[in-house]
Amino acid sequence: MVDKELAVQLKRLYVTPGKCIGCRTCELACTFVHTEGGGRLRRTRVQVHDTGGETFVPVLCLQCETAACVRACPVEALVRNELTGAIDVDEERCVRCMACVVACPFGNMLFDEQAGVVVKCDVCVGRPACAMFCPTKALEYR
Amino acid sequence: MGLISFSINGTAVSGAEGETVLKVAGRAGIRIPTLCHHEAVEASGACRLCMVEISHPDWKGWKGLVTACLYPIEPGLEVSTDAEAVLECRRNVLDLLLARCPTSPVIRDLAAAYGLRETTLTVDADPDNCMLCGLCTRICAQMGHHAISTVGRGVKKKVGLPLDKPSESCVGCAVCARICPTDAITFREDGRQRKIWGRTFEMMCCEECGTSYITRAQAEYVCEREGMTIDYFEKCDKCRSRDTARTFSRMVQW
């Protein structure tokens, strides 16, 4: 359930690449949050890339207004969560056609091979762990 | 819109008007076995596994068996998912399914859970894993392809192609195979090509690393439906993600 107080004002995840030191704590936090019942670590939804010259960039879903993933989905399994502003995957509706994974122009729709499901950033339903654990505030939720 | 209150196995539950018993039970954490149900597809009550017993204080003791996936909830309804009549009904259904699909691991496991190791009926002379629930044909139609359907009648009924010829409207998305509850539909894929339903489809390979997820025909179908361009589908998620990072990094340096 979404904490309604958190959702009063829609927040956004801000990425400041210049502050990222490439420690990948966000990736670890993400996998932990999205792993249920102490199972094997799930696919991280935030990915830190080394773009050379000691510049690291964390890449995660931009929650686009007119999203390619939503357009490509044939069964309306991708829906905007009005409380968090994020686009959520309805795993029960998803038919795993993979169209969204390829359609995303930013590479933020991911396939969790181990679980056989499509996953994406859901801003941890209003409490993004990546931003919470980022030591340099390269990721901020405000 | 008011909530409808009723009970499942004596526990008070509620749902919105038009919701089915199966939907509300799922939300309440009460498990009802199903094979042919999928959230994205309109329910058809084909597999008969989700049978539950219903009654109502106003029904003067009358009880009936209905499919949970189709039965709309109503105020005061009393649902039982584990009455002896329900269990017996499910055992009979599984007995029939076992006779048809004696080697399907999914059906064997389900049957074993209801105390059935082997069918008590005559096993189908030419058995396969398809139990004719039609989930594959329904999702195919819903996605707009209508490539496969059930063909023939009675004992000759099967899931297949119109006139047994490769279908023009199939895009090779393989959703039929992925959605099949008993894994009766198979396809072969080697990264460059996918073979399914008698046709060979070219895969949309990432122009950088060659990874492929969908067929070119499927990409073209989505493009046509949504007015998107094919370049949306020309790279894989990993290469796109790296590109995004590079673009962000350049933006920072400006």
Rg of chain B: 23 Å
The pLDDT mean of chain B sits at 94
Helical/strand content category of chain A: alpha+beta
β-sheet strand percentage of chain A: 15-25%
How is the biggest beta sheet of chain B arranged?
Answer: 5 strands, mixed
Residue-averaged pLDDT of chain A? 90
Topology as H/E string of chain B? EEHEEEHHHEEHEEEEHH
Shape of chain B: globular
Oligomer: heterodimer
Give the helix/strand class of chain B: alpha+beta
Detail the poorly predicted runs of chain A. none
Per DSSP E runs of 2 or more residues, the count of β-strands of chain B stands at 11
Layout of secondary structure:
The complex is a heterodimer of chains A (142) and B (254).
Chain A: E1 13-15, H1 25-33, E2 47-50, E3 56-59, H2 68-72, E4 78-80, E5 87-89, H3 99-103, E6 110-112, E7 117-119, H4 129-133, E8 139-141
Antiparallel strand pairs in A: 1-8, 2-3, 4-5, 6-7
Chain B: E1 4-8, E2 11-15, H1 21-27, E3 51-55, E4 64-67, E5 78-80, H2 84-100, H3 105-113, H4 135-142, E6 149-151, E7 158-160, H5 175-179, E8 188-189, E9 193-196, E10 199-205, E11 212-215, H6 216-226, H7 237-253
Parallel strand pairs in B: 1-5
Antiparallel strand pairs in B: 1-2, 3-4, 3-5, 6-7, 8-9, 9-10, 10-11
Helix pairs in contact in B: 2-3
Structure description:
The complex is a heterodimer of chains A (142) and B (254). By secondary structure, chain A is of the alpha+beta class. Chain A has four helices and eight strands, in the order E-H-E-E-H-E-E-H-E-E-H-E. Chain A has helices at 25-33, 68-72, 99-103, 129-133; strands at 13-15, 47-50, 56-59, 78-80, 87-89, 110-112, 117-119, 139-141. Chain A is globular and about 40 Å long. The mean pLDDT of chain A is 90. Chain B has 254 residues and is α+β, with helices and mostly antiparallel strands. Chain B is built from seven helices and eleven strands. In chain B, the strands form three sheets. A five-stranded mixed sheet of chain B has the order 2-1-5-3-4, sandwiched between helices. In chain B, strands 8-9-10-11 form a four-stranded antiparallel sheet. In chain B, strands 6-7 form a two-stranded antiparallel sheet. The longest helix of chain B has 17 residues, at 84-100. The mean pLDDT of chain B is 94.
